[in-house]
C-alpha cells in the first residue's frame, strides 16, 4: 500500500531577540534598541536610553537661574541657541521681563540659522543611515560651517553658545557679521537646489523611504508628537504660529505639511522648512533696528551679580518651536535664587516614544532609517 506524507506549507521558526547598541546604531548618540525579530522583520522594539544621563533638572534646582543657561546648551547640543531661547522665554514670563527690540530680532535670526543647521545636518545623516552615500553629509556640513562660524564670532563658541540672557542677548551682531548672514541667506537656496537635485527624486531614497515608518496623524496627536514629525503627518501645528512668541507674528511664512507621514515626508518637510526659514531671515535682516539696547534695563543690575536675581513666587511654562519640535521649560519659583522646580519638555524624548509603532512589520535596516527620520539627540533624550 502506498504511503502518503503530509507536507507543511510553512516552516516552524523562532523569533530572535537582539540588542542593537549601546554603541551608535545611528548617528544620534549612545542608544540601544532591543528588538525581537521574525527573520528580518521587526516584531517588537524597545528603545533603551540613559547612557548619557547628566541629572540636568536636579542640577538646575541647585544653582542660580542664570547658571542654568550654559547647561541648556547641552540638551540638544546641535541647537544650543534654540535651547537658550526657550529657557529665556520661561524666566522672562516668570519674572515679567521685557526684551528690547534689537535683541528680539537677533534672537529670531539665531533661532532660524539654527534651524538651517539642524535640518541640513539631519538630512545628511539620514542618507548616511540609509547606507546610500556619504556626499549629502559633506554638502550639509559645508553649509553648517558657515553658520557656526557666525555663532563663534558672536558668542565665542561654535556649539555651546551660552548666548541668550534673560531680557536679551549677551553681545551685539556687528554690521560686518549681519552682512555675512545676508550672504549666507542669499546663497543658501542654491545649496538647497543642489541637495534636492541629488536627493528628492533619487531612486534609492524613494524606494527606501516612501511608505516606510508611516505615522498616522491620529497617533501623532495622541502621542504628543511635535515639530517636523507632526507636520509630516499632515497636522498643521507650529508654535511660531500658534503662540506667536517673541516677534514671530511680524513675519510671513508658511507651514509645510506632508501627506502620508512616512520617512520620505519627514525628509521633504525639513527641506521645505529650510526654505521658509530663509524667508523669515530675509524679513528679520531687513527689519532689524540699526541700534538699540541688548538687555532689558530691569536685568542690568543682575548682569554682574546674577545670584541676586530672585524671581517672584510663581510658576511659568515657556516653549519654542525648536528644530525637533516643542521644547519647553516648566519652572517654579519660591522666591529664592534657585528654582524650586525645573523641568524640561524635550522633543527628542517625546518623539522617540512612537519608535516601536513605526518599526513593527519593517525590516531591521528600515528601523535604522526610521530612527534617523525622527531626528533625536541623546543629550536631550537623557536630560
Write the H/E string, N to C.
Answer: EEEHHHHHEEHHHHHHHEEEHHHH
| CA-based shape | globular
What does the average pLDDT come to?
A: 92
Largest sheet: 3 strands, antiparallel
User: In angstroms, what is the radius of gyration?
Assistant: 23 Å
Instruction: Please count the beta strands (DSSP E, at least 2 residues each).
Output: 8
In percent terms, what proportion of residues is strand? 5-15%
Descriptive account of the structure:
This protein is of the alpha+beta class. Helices cover 46% and strands 12% of the residues. The longest helix is centred in the N-terminal third of the chain and has 30 residues.
Give the topology:
Elements: E1 16-20, E2 32-38, E3 41-48, H1 56-60, H2 69-72, H3 80-95, H4 101-130, H5 135-155, E4 164-165, E5 168-169, H6 175-199, H7 203-209, H8 217-222, H9 228-232, H10 239-242, H11 263-287, H12 300-303, E6 314-322, E7 325-333, E8 341-345, H13 347-352, H14 355-359, H15 364-374, H16 378-381
Antiparallel strand pairs: 1-2, 2-3, 4-5, 6-7, 7-8
Helix pairs in contact: 3-4, 4-5, 4-11, 4-15, 5-6, 6-11
Amino acid at each position: 500500500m502506498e504511503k502518503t506524507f503530509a507536507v507543511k506549507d510553512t516552516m516552524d521558526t523562532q523569533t530572535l531577540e537582539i540588542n542593537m547598541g549601546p554603541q551608535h546604531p545611528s548617528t544620534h548618540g549612545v542608544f540601544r534598541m532591543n528588538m525581537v525579530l521574525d527573520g528580518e522583520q521587526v516584531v517588537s522594539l524597545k528603545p533603551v536610553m540613559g547612557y548619557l544621563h547628566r541629572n540636568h533638572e536636579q542640577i538646575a534646582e541647585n544653582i542660580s537661574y542664570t547658571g542654568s543657561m550654559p547647561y541648556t546648551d547641552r540638551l540638544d547640543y546641535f541647537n544650543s541657541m534654540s535651547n537658550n531661547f526657550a529657557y529665556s522665554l520661561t524666566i522672562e514670563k516668570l519674572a515679567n521681563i521685557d526684551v528690547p527690540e534689537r535683541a528680539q530680532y537677533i534672537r529670531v535670526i539665531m533661532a532660524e540659522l539654527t534651524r538651517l543647521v539642524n535640518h541640513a545636518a539631519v538630512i545628511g545623516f539620514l542618507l548616511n543611515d540609509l547606507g546610500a552615500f556619504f556626499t549629502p553629509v559633506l554638502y550639509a556640513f559645508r553649509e553648517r560651517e558657515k553658520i557656526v562660524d557666525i555663532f563663534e564670532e558672536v558668542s565665542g563658541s561654535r556649539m555651546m553658545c551660552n548666548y541668550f540672557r534673560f531680557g536679551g542677548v549677551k553681545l551685539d551682531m556687528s554690521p560686518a557679521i549681519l552682512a555675512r548672514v545676508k550672504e549666507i541667506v542669499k546663497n543658501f537656496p542654491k545649496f538647497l537646489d543642489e541637495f534636492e537635485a541629488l536627493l528628492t527624486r533619487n531612486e534609492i531614497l524613494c524606494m527606501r523611504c516612501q511608505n516606510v515608518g508611516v505615522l498616522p496623524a491620529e497617533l501623532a496627536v495622541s502621542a504628543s508628537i511635535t515639530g517636523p514629525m507632526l507636520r509630516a503627518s499632515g497636522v498643521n501645528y507650529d508654535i511660531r504660529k500658534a503662540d506667536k512668541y517673541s516677534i514671530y507674528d511680524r513675519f510671513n511664512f508658511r507651514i509645510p505639511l506632508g501627506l502620508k507621514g512616512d520617512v520620505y515626508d519627514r525628509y521633504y518637510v525639513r527641506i521645505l522648512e529650510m526654505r521658509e526659514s530663509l524667508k523669515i531671515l530675509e524679513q528679520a535682516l531687513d527689519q532689524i533696528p540699526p541700534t538699540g539696547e541688548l538687555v532689558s534695563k530691569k536685568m542690568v543690575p543682575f548682569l554682574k551679580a546674577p545670584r541676586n536675581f530672585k524671581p517672584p513666587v510663581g510658576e511659568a511654562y515657556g516653549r519654542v518651536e525648536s528644530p525637533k519640535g516643542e521644547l519647553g521649560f516648566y519652572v517654579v519659583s519660591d522666591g529664592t535664587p534657585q528654582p524650586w522646580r525645573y523641568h524640561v519638555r524635550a522633543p527628542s524624548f517625546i518623539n522617540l516614544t512612537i519608535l516601536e509603532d513605526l518599526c513593527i512589520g519593517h525590516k531591521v535596516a528600515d528601523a535604522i532609517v526610521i530612527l534617523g527620520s525622527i531626528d533625536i539627540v541623546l543629550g536631550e533624550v537623557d536630560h
